[in-house]
Amino acid sequence: MLAVARRYVRDPDDAEDVLAQGFVKVFRYLHQYEGRGSLAGWIRRVIVHEALKFLRKRGTLTVSLHDEQHGLALADRLGAAATAESDLAAADLWHLLDGLPGGYRAVFNLYAVEGFTHPQIAAMLGVSEGTSKSQLFKARALLQRRIAALHYAPAMAA
Predict the structure, then answer these.
(1) For the chain, how big is the Rg over CA atoms in Å?
(2) Helices (H) and strands (E) in the chain, counts
(3) How far apart are the C-alpha atoms of 108 and 67, rounded to whole Å?
(4) CB atoms within 10 A of CB 32
(5) Considering the entire predicted model, what is its pTM?
(6) Cβ atoms of residues 54 and 60 within 8 Å
(7) What is the DSSP string of 34-96?
(8) Rounded to a whole number, what is the distance in angstroms from the first to the last CA of the chain?
(9) pLDDT over threshold 70, residue 86
């Protein structure tokens, strides 16, 4: 569960705090677990909600409709990014995910890693479903650009 908290919260000490607070809630509300699905899945959901609460409180979970900072273009999504992904180690991918802006990272993790739907993500983050989809699109595009940059950086140095 620490890995789950760490996917949302960059600082390892803060992730441990989120985990501890999450398990306090797990034990406090264990009677509400209805036995549907796995207990681990229920605990994961509590930890995710606690991580999002922590990010909101810190003001580091910002979901925006605009992307002036990164200036992504549709054409940047295409090209060699798909082939570079297969050469990417898991540790490199987690490092790239960790480098995403807070809102992108949260939506990407909730959708691609945790398996939540856009309506669920929108409800959790207090945004529209369209904003959730937009943030996922932008996160993927930014990841693809960074993967492509990693793939071509060694070739250019040679």
Answers:
(1) 17
(2) 8, 0
(3) 16
(4) 7
(5) 0.64
(6) no
(7) -SSS-HHHHHHHHHHHHHHHHHHHHT-----S--TTT---GGGGSSTHHHHHHT--HHHHHHH
(8) 41
(9) no
